[in-house]
Amino acid sequence: MTPNPAVTVYDLRPDAAEDCEAFARIREEALPFILLTGESLAYDLRHAHPDAHYQPLLASVDGEAVGSAQVGVVHDSPKPGQAYLNVYVRPDHESRGAGTALVRTAEERLRGLGVTEVFSWVLDTPADRAFAERRGYRSSRSAHFLRLDLTDGSLPPLQSPPPGVEVLPGTDFAADPRPLFALDAETLADEPSDVDYEMTDYENWLRGTWNHPLTSQELTSVVLVDGRPAAFTMARTNGGTRYGTIMTGTARAYRGRGLAKLAKNDSLHRARAAGLTEALTGNDHGNEPMLAVNKWFGYEICATEVRHVRTLG
């Protein structure tokens, strides 16, 4: 099944704690800009939507886990037949066949599910882009990873909300987070992307976002205008000193008033007060308003990925 007999590709199981930790370590070495733990990965596997056919893969060389792949179907898009495949190999084990074996195994599985288009995020390096292009993937849009040091005193001062505007922590919505689901769905639909998403499944959102083990309801911030949720920033932490925002957005009716900046400013200050030292986020290259907001906070681009797509025959 694989081009190198020393390479073995196998499914990750949620009950295999050692493998889940190995997957997380590989991702940390290859892509240290996204928060992931073995525990959160096992949770994702247990709670994935059945239509997503979500199945992470591990590749081992001579019994040592050296490569990982996120594989799944884009089930929440109005266009059928789309999937994603993101491959990461430990930097000290590249060019040993693990990446090739992961791609071949994943594509074979996706063909069996009727997938016709595969999207893949590829680090913007000559070697990574050449790897994707040799396998028939063509480049599309790009996105940036950004980092902010919360210890150097450069975070802009905490802003006071204007009259009629209030900022609350996410915990104030613990009893009924549905207003945040509506905000998340509306902002996701307007994000620049190669894939159109329709977030309509509230229960799936509860499992995969709001109740996710990495989500910090305490550090999530929500802006209310005249008592109505209008903007938010959703926060995650990994149990250490790092903090990340996975979505910041404003309802269409309230855009252009600086509310997203207000929400993120509140969340960042509470993260720093909680002892977190590093803030991470990501932005599509075409999302100029959010890039401007993050630049104002002092975020700096630390890496870039390029979306690639392949049509499966």
Summarize the structure.
By secondary structure, this protein is α+β, with helices and mostly antiparallel strands.
Salient structural properties:
alpha+beta, 313 residues
What does this 3D model show about the protein?
The protein is of the alpha+beta class. The chain has 2 domains: 7-115, Aminopeptidase, CATH 3.40.630.30; 147-304, Gcn5-related N-acetyltransferase (GNAT) (Aminopeptidase). Helix content is 30%, strand content 30%. It has helices at residues 17-30, 38-47, 98-112, 126-134, 178-190, 202-210, 259-273, 288-297; strands at residues 7-11, 57-61, 64-73, 82-89, 117-123, 138-149, 165-169, 221-225, 228-237, 242-250, 278-284, 300-311. The chain has a 12-stranded mixed beta sheet, sandwiched between helices. Strand 4, helix 3 (98-112) and strand 5 form a beta-alpha-beta unit. The radius of gyration is 20 Å and the shape is globular. The mean pLDDT is 94.
